[in-house]
């Protein structure tokens, strides 16, 4: 039971203040007049004012509440290094025992792991959440067991009690890590890009440690290369990306004896390979509706530089105009087809006929261009089956079809072949058809297949779209000049732009349109492996090489014509290599550069500015577990070998009883008595004066 005096004024504060001033004036007047009874007058006025304040005795039935100590335990990945987990477990048990000996004190133990999305150790966020769950008036202290590598210092909460940090780790710890200083997110295919990295030692590295180290560098699934680099210096690695899409670069160094971990001895960088502005050469043999189709398609892409020439008048026209002047502007054939032909990514012959404008030697240059990695698309018209056909030029060496000189002039709906339903260029095109099916075309140049793959067919299953690989390059033949009808929406039209876009991207060797491909995507630790093929037989199992060098095989299940898939749960974080025959790829599971292993040496430097205002301390568990002491609020709460907790004395009031100190009539009687004594004292003085 606790007693306190509570005031319950009968008048507002301003009225009491006014009466107090009046009382002081009356007493001052009495002193000025020399009245001997002024003390009794003061007593009377004081009793009146006291009665007006109405003092009362408040009896409270208080139940004391226990103090709370929050123990925050860092269980992030860096806390698994060396014997830090053992140190942490020992400290927890010791603190449990020590807190249990303190009077009226409870211990709250909270654990935190790695932050989501490679955010690292979010100890301050966890601390703020823990404090929000407890009454602030009961917090006697917060103890954090960690290695000190905290990554959300800006989220540190305002602490009502001392914060103590108990550091794991050992004095002689050291670690060697490989870090990426700068890496481009994008790089142009075929052009040199640079990646900067650094190898450095942290902590107390051995005095006999070598000043140079071998670093192994691998690009995708290609063979690795090893270079010797100095430690502590930033190095620049020149790279040339071989293909579009994601290119995975891995750098690694050998683990060293005595270092904390080899998890940071490797780094993985994903660079998106993009093409520079694509250079396309479009040569139209004569003005035709399909010419606008190709021009609109290519000009609509801001990443395409288009060079377009149209032959306006054929040389057989009976006039005196030289052949060299049959184009709108001078046709720089030598510059285009000899000097700078390798600068083009794609050459399109749109209804082109051999009319003496391009010499045979220049067309042979086109053949060499394709065999060296270039691409040629032939959009054939009636001239392809005639005597001046491109077939009767050196291009016949690389064309996958041979014209029969027959032209089918009849309405037909293009159809996707069985092989085309598996090929990425035409796969799924049928789903884009209008409700009544694709619109008709009205001309097909009859050809016979010599090589390649027929993806679309016309009437009587005759080849319409044929693709082929020649040497290192690619060739495509579209045996009709009627695709523009789809673009005009004739009879509902068709996916003209999508077809031509896919066709152009296949010829430009975009990875997503490769007919034989092996890919993998990791979401968390789940890896989805995809395999695309146009072969009739199911592909064999995929061999997976884990980061530690062990291998496993995975069977593939068919999900669509030519599409196979497998799902794999990765048991480790790191780089996985996938191999199936001649195809290979890599996939990184987990963060490419784990934040938890960027700084592995235990240190309290980061947390010192947060601990200092709370008057807490930072202690190394390697020197022993500190004792617990109770200290007053505002005093230093840490010293050599000890940390302090601040008792809060919190309580809950269960019952309250209030009774006046004196009844009102008692104040009145006492005040009246004081006034009588004042008058008596003053009257006695007056009587004594009269007797004299």
Which parts are unreliable, with pLDDT below 50 for 5 consecutive residues or more? none
The level of helicity is 10-25%
Sheet having the most strands: 8 strands, mixed
Distance between the termini: 62 Å
Strand content: 25-35%
CATH topology of the largest domain: Rossmann fold
Number of helices: 11
Shape: elongated
Based on secondary structure, the structural category is: alpha/beta
Tally of distinct domains: 5
CATH architecture of the largest domain: 3-Layer(aba) Sandwich
Number of strands: 39
Strand sequence of the main sheet, in spatial order? 18-17-19-20-26-25-24-22
Structure, described:
By secondary structure, this protein is an alpha/beta fold. It has five domains: 2-63 and 654-691, no CATH class; 66-172 and 602-649, Rossmann fold (3-Layer(aba) Sandwich); 174-275, Sandwich (Immunoglobulin-like); 278-507, Rossmann fold, CATH 3.40.50; 517-589, Immunoglobulin-like. The chain has eleven helices and 39 strands. The strands form ten sheets. It has an eight-stranded mixed beta sheet with strand order 18-17-19-20-26-25-24-22. It has a five-stranded parallel beta sheet with strand order 4-3-7-8-35, with helices on both faces. Helix 1 runs antiparallel to helix 2 (38-53) and helix 6 (333-339) runs parallel beside helix 7 (360-371). The longest helix has 28 residues, at 664-691. The protein is elongated, with a radius of gyration of 45 Å. The model has no long low-confidence stretch (mean pLDDT 85).
């Amino acid at each position: 039971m606790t007693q306190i005096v509570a005031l319950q004024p009968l008048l507002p504060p301003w009225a009491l203040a006014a009466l107090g001033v009046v009382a002081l004036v009356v007493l001052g007047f009495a002193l000025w007049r020399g009245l001997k009874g002024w003390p009794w007058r003061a007593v009377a006025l004081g009793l009146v004012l006291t009665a007006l304040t109405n003092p009362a005795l408040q009896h409270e039935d208080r139940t004391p509440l226990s103090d709370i100590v929050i123990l925050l335990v860092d269980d992030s990945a860096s806390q698994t290094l060396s014997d830090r987990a053992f140190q942490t477990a020992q400290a927890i048990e010791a603190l449990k025992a020590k807190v249990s000996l303190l009077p009226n004190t409870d211990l709250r133990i909270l654990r935190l792991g790695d932050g989501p999305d490679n955010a690292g150790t979010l100890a301050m966020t966890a601390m703020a959440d823990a404090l929000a769950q407890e009454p602030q008036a009961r917090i006697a202290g917060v103890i954090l067991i960690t290695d000190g590598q905290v990554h959300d210092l800006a989220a540190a909460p305002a602490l009502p009690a001392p914060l103590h940090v108990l550091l794991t780790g050992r004095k002689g710890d050291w670690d060697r890590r490989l870090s990426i200083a700068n890496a481009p997110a994008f790089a142009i295919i075929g052009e040199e890009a640079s990646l900067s990295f650094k190898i450095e030692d942290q902590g107390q590295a051995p005095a006999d440690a070598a000043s140079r180290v071998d670093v192994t560098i691998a690009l995708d699934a290609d063979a690795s290369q090893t270079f010797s680099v100095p430690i502590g210096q930033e190095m620049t690695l020149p790279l040339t990306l071989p293909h579009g899409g994601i290119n995975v670069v891995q750098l690694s160094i050998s683990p060293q004896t005595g270092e904390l971990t080899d998890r940071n001895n490797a780094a993985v960088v994903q660079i998106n390979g993009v093409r520079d502005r694509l250079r396309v050469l479009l040569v139209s043999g004569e003005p035709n509706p399909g010419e606008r189709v190709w021009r609109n398609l290519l000009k609509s892409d801001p990443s395409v530089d288009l060079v377009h020439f149209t032959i306006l008048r054929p040389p057989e026209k009976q006039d005196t105009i030289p052949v060299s002047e049959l184009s709108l502007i001078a046709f720089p054939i030598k510059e285009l087809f000899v000097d700078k032909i390798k600068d083009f990514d794609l050459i399109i012959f749109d209804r082109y006929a051999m009319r003496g404008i391009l010499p045979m030697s220049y067309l042979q240059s086109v053949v060499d261009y394709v065999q060296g990695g270039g691409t040629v698309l032939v959009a054939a018209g009636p001239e392809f089956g005639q005597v001046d056909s491109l077939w009767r030029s050196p291009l016949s060496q690389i064309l996958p079809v041979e014209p029969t000189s027959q032209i089918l002039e009849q309405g037909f709906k293009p159809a996707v072949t069985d092989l085309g339903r598996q090929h990425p260029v035409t796969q799924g095109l049928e789903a884009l058809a209008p409700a009544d099916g694709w619109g008709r075309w009205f001309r097909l140049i009859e050809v016979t297949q010599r090589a390649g793959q027929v993806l679309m067919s016309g009437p009587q299953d005759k080849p319409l779209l044929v693709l082929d690989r020649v040497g290192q390059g690619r060739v495509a033949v579209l045996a009709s000049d009627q695709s523009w009808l789809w673009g005009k929406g004739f009879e509902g039209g068709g996916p003209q732009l999508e077809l031509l876009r896919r066709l152009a991207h296949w010829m430009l060797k975009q990875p997503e349109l490769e007919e034989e491909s092996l890919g993998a995507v990791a979401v968390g630790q789940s890896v989805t492996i995809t395999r695309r093929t146009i072969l009739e037989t199911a592909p064999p199992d995929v061999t997976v090489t884990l980061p530690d060098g062990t291998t496993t095989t995975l069977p593939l299940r068919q999900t669509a014509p030519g599409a196979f898939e497998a799902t794999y749960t990765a048991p480790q974080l790191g780089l996985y290599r996938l191999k199936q025959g001649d195809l290979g790829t890599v996939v990184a599971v987990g963060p490419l550069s784990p934040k938890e292993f960027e700084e592995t040496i235990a240190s309290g430097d980061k947390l010192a500015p947060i601990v200092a205002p709370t008057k807490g301390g930072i202690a190394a568990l390697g020197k022993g577990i500190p004792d617990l002491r109770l200290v007053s609020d505002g005093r230093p709460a840490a010293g050599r070998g000890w940390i302090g907790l601040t008792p809060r004395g919190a309580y809950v009031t269960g019952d309250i009883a209030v009774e006046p100190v004196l009844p009102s009539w008692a104040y009145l009687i006492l005040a009246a008595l004081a006034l009588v004594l004042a008058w008596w004292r003053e009257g006695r003085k007056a009587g004594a004066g009269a007797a004299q």
